[in-house]
Amino acid sequence: MSIDSTSKNNAYRDVLWLQTSFIGDTILSTAAMAALQTCRPMTRQHLITTASGAEALKGHPLLSSVHVYAKRSRHAFENNLFGLKPMLQLRAKIRALNLTTPIILQPHKSLRSTLLAKVLGFPVITYTETTGSIFAFKRFVRTAVLHEADRVALLLEGLGIDRSDLLGCRPSLPTAPLPLAAQDLGKPLQWIAVAPGSVWATKRWPAEKYAQLVSRILEKQNVGIVLLGSKDESDAAAVILNSNNLPDQKKRILNLVGLTSLTDLNGIYPRVKAVISNDSSAIHYASAFNIPTLAIFGSTIPAMGFAPLAEGSKVAEISLSCRPCSAHGPMVCPLGHFKCMKDLSVESVLAQMPESWTTQ
Question: How far apart are the C-alpha atoms of 99 and 93, rounded to whole Å?
Fold first, then answer.
């Protein structure tokens, strides 16, 4: 598609965000959407994401439309080179919107996203580090020292927006009704959410340590613990629940692990006082609702750009020369000792938790 003089003057009417990465990355991208809305309020924003991303951002007021690219579907690559058929189907849906001077902002750096952008056929703004970025209309260096929310926002420089108007935005999510399973959160009790999971094993603080932490927190009066996570965290939740033998403690633990949808979380997070989580999407959910967070980092480090953005947030970690050991955190400690999590004590995590979290 040719870029005429009007487009060069940044008159793009429709912007398509191509973000098919993890849930946390998708949530963080909403900070850039907010910056675009502020600077160019007449621009319509559209999101191409995964099914889980679409569920998390369902009803987001910044988005005119949301479109699912099922990149992990078992049918995506069957009899289709590089999953071309679902890409063409998505292109037909996008074209049917009759967009005006559309442009794609591609924060996801994968080859598959680049191929999808090519199939869609609109100009692309992405990072120099994106696989296949040579085909992009504009490219920007992905500045490592910035938070991921700011890194995504800087793609908007390609639309002629000044950098000073882009940095420092926080992500956002729409509030949802409180799900039936979480009705206890409406009672007059201070609730702290604990999310003990992560896709990556070396990002998980041991469940036994979470159990000790929860017991110590419950020693405080007027505090409840709500356990959050997918069914994959069921074993960790069981360790936490089984370690609390005092009846009074168990009465103040609400286990929602495996019982909530991503949309349900938009109803739960606004009703908790604080969040304790590994380096996972729970941090970014909390940031979206400005819920103070105690983030536990092991194989990764906050300087990689995924620290909590909510006011009053804290980080618990220990200093090791082997940290970080990879971009995401591997499934197994490369050195075999896993000291980054095993040596992080319950006392040191508690020391980072403000006293106000456990008081009325």
Answer: 11
